[in-house]
Amino acid sequence: MSYEVVGITVLWSFLYGYLIVASVDFGAGFFSYYSKATKKNHVIHNIIQRYLSPVWEITNVFLVFFFIGIVGFFPSTAYYYGTALLVPGSIAIILLALRGSYYAFATYGAKESKFYSFLYGATGLLIPASLTTVLTISEGGYISNENGTVELLYRDLFTSPYSWSVVILAIVSVLFISATFLTFYASRAQDTNALKLLRKYALTWSLPSIVMGVIVLMLLRAQNIEHYQNILDIWWVFAISFVLFAVATFLIWKGKKYGTAFILIMVQYLTAFFGYGVSHFPYLLYPYLTIYDGFTSEPMAIALIIAFIGGLFLLIPSLLLIMKLFLFDADYVQGKRK
Amino acid sequence: MFIDYDPVIYSRLLTSLTLGFHVIFATIGVGVPLMIAIAEWMGIKRNDPHYTLMARRWARGFVITVAVGVVTGTAIGLQLSLLWPNFMQAAGHTIGLPMFMEVFAFFFEAIFLGIYLYTWDRFKTKMRHFLLVIPIVIGATASAFFITTVNSFMNAPQGFNIVDGILTDVSPLAAMFNAATPTKISHVIITCYLTAAFILGAIAAFHILKGNKHVYHKKALHLTMVSGIIFAIGTALIGDLSGKYLHEYQPEKLASAEWHLETESGAPLILGGFINDENEISYALEIPYALSILAGGTPDTEVIGLNEFPEEDLPPLWIHYMFDSMVFIGMFLAAVSALFVAMNWKKNWNAFNRPLLWAVVAGGPLSMLAIESGWFFAEVGRQPWIINGVMRTAEGATTSQHVDLMLYLFIILYAVLGITVVVVLRRMFKSNPIEHELEERGFAHKKEDEKEVARR
To answer: What residue intervals traverse the membrane (chain A) (predicted)?
Structure first.
């Protein structure tokens, strides 16, 4: 395997990690606000708070890891994406900043505030929408590279059915992933009311998420035929993804094995996400930038990979520890222990 | 605004705004964990619930500042690519490694901070909980270490060659451990500790001034001032080495900071004053030979003057004021903490007298001001280069047309965040004073404690 492939695999894995943990977080914010607004008497509020409080900071690191890592491995991405994404990138930063800090203000500092929880819920849907801009423009057709400067073509982006369908896919996926995780968490907490509500949310968002996946695929054909062809070549990956989805949804509908269901859904998104990534290969930004022409020097690549392996030795035990303490500790999950 | 739209100027403004705001929380983020660790350690060693509670309360306030530190840190991380795409393209090749490792350090810290905050009453022994704070201290200091090597590289770039405009022979470790690295890192880390000690000390002093007689605040003040004097001495020693570094490697920065015009030996140090367009200095205080001693350790060291450099390679001369205020405040902090510790040590002197307490209170915000001045001096003193001697700032900036709008958006964002942080922190501690919390935990206020402190 070449250093380029190792680099992109590492980064893609972290982006996948962010996709899962951030979805749980963003969706939780929305459900928390929605259940309050519809006067469901804070049924699920405690569940969400107990899970999120110790981990909200970690979620953020996954994202930072990705965008610092990509500049390290593929410095030219900074030139193209950096120049083009000033506005959407800045908006995403502002939303992330409001969300992160107001979460902490509400949880550790002040008393409950309706405004804080609205902010928290709304940003939970707006952030995935603004972040997916990056995936959309990577397909090509939304960037001009003339007179030595890179520019984002806003009109093309905002009038494109493809870009909007990606946004919707992102939002429904966030809600679906989050609801299935929280269903599992509520079942561990033996909180029947929360479980009932969250299970309903999970089932509600299951169908839209898979339908949007298919729609995005159809629209991709017009956007980037080459990419579409590559996807068809590895159709079986997406078929596996669909089967996993079907089994997981069935389990949730039957009301059993929520843990298994959540794992299946994680693998569903893993296969779909890597299938998408592999078929995008070798482009980082179609058609300007491939992983080969934007790659860093060999000594830096080796140094980054060594640092990465060393870092994992530190991270994996720590992550296991925090999961043991807060995710798999029955007393904590059930609220018997602070 | 009266200036024409120029993405370079707006990018510089937005970057300094974000970094200027972030550095407040970053400094607290590096320094406070160590203070928390010391307090918790004292609590265990002396079996004194006051110190344990101190660690607990500091940690609670700390999370709020961490939250803002995290989000503004994320902001600057992304903004580097958004505002300085050409710089990041070059930087990715040379200093991708320390940036990457900084994220790991931050990751490590984030995990253990999450655990630490939620396991106060969970373990059987207090020692086990104390162990959790160590990775936080290490993670916080390590992120400062790694990210400062990036900044050092921008001041003293090495570890690569440029052949026909293309970077070759990159050595990530050489880029990390450049000439500026040792002084810069040690200076950044120790001043973070010093600032944290003074901010926490200022809170304690303020409570005592407001008439709160609880021994908790006296203990907090004593702990922070003893730490303060140690860090202040360290800061002075390292500051001296930094001067010698500048003399050796970035003489134009030193000459601009000191308004040192002609190359000469026995160079005087200039304090304060004004400089006009013809570079004539008025109203300044001159200390003979001091600059030569600062730069080389001997009065006859020859110090290179401003006139040796082409004008387009010189930073603006107002950095002199930044340099002076940083040094003055540093000396003030050393004096205040030394005085407190000395007076507290002498049995029949009262270290808790009002003027000294007010000086400690002033030390809190002043120490943060010194951090800001120091960074402005360091950063503006590197202009007009973004990578010293390699890439001009204008070459690194974005060409995008919307930087001005983003600047206004971020001004609003930071104003909102800044105000909320103050409100939340005040509310948090006002609604839950120390007496109340001690009672809640079953430790009533004991008269003997106060007597014991009075005796000491």
So the answer is: 12-34, 55-74, 80-98, 118-142, 162-186, 198-222, 234-253, 260-281, 301-328
In this structure, the strands spanning B269-271 and B264-265 are unpaired
Query: Among candidates B71, B295, B249, which has minimal Cα distance to B154?
Result: B249
| Contact residues, B window 53-92, toward A, CB-based 8 Å cutoff | 60, 63-64, 66-68, 70-75, 77-79, 81-86, 88-92
Give CA angle at B19 (B13, B20), nearest 5°.
85
CA end-to-end span of chain B: 59
Please, what is the Cα angle at A137 between A136 and A138, to 5 degrees?
90
In which element (H, E) is residue B287 found? strand B285-287
d(CA A20, CA A306): 26
Instruction: Fill in the amino acid letter for A184.
Output: F
Host H or E run for residue B137: helix B126-155
* Spatial CB neighbours of A77, under 8 Å, sequence gap ≥ 6: A70, A71, A284, A285, A289, A294
Point out the residue among A55, A89, A308 whose CB comes nearest to the CB of B114. A55
B323-348: per-residue pLDDT in tens? 889 989 998 999 999 888 887 887 77
Q: Tokens 């600032």, residue?
A: B195
Residue A75 contacts B, CB cutoff 8 Å: yes
Q: What is the pLDDT of residue B1?
A: 47
* Contacts of residue B414, Cβ cutoff 8 Å, sequence gap at least 6: B17, B18, B21, B72
Q: Give the ipTM of the model, two decimals please.
A: 0.83
What is the reported pTM?
Answer: 0.87
Is B396 in a helix, a strand, or coil?
helix
- In degrees and rounded to multiples of 5, residue B280 shows phi and psi of -100, 130
Task: Among A86, A296, A321, select the one facing B96 at the smallest CB separation.
Answer: A296
DSSP B320-388: HHHHHHHHHHHHHHHHHHHHHHHHHHSTTS-TT-HHHHHHHHHHHHHHHHHHHHHHHHHHHTTTTEEET
What pLDDT does A148 receive?
A: 67
C-alpha–C-alpha distance, residues B202 and B205, integer Å: 5
The DSSP 8-state label assigned to residue B316 in this structure reads P
Burial A136-161, CB ≥16 within 10 A → b, else e: bbbbbbbbeeeeeebbbeeeebeebe
* Subunit contact B420:A63, Cβ cutoff 8 A: no
| Structural contact between residues B250 and B306, judged by C-beta atoms closer than 8 angstroms | no
In angstroms, rounded to a whole number, what is the distance separating the alpha carbons of residues A45 and A29?
10
Of A151, A307, A338, which is closest to B118 when you measure between CB atoms?
A338
Any CB–CB contact under 8 A between A306 and chain B? no
Q: How many residues does chain B have?
A: 456
Residue boundaries of the structural domains of chain A:
3-333
Residues 6 or more apart from A114 whose CB is under 8 A from it? A36
Tokens of A52: 């999120």
Strands (E), B109-180: 161-163, 166-168
Residue type, B287: I
CB neighbourhood size of A103 (10 A): 23
Would you tell me how many other CB atoms lie within 10 Å of the CB of residue B282?
A: 8
Q: Where are the domains of chain B?
A: 21-246+330-455
pLDDT of residue B443: 67
* Residue A130, both tokens: 């603004």
Q: What is the pLDDT of residues B273-294, one digit of tens each?
A: 777 777 777 777 777 777 777 7
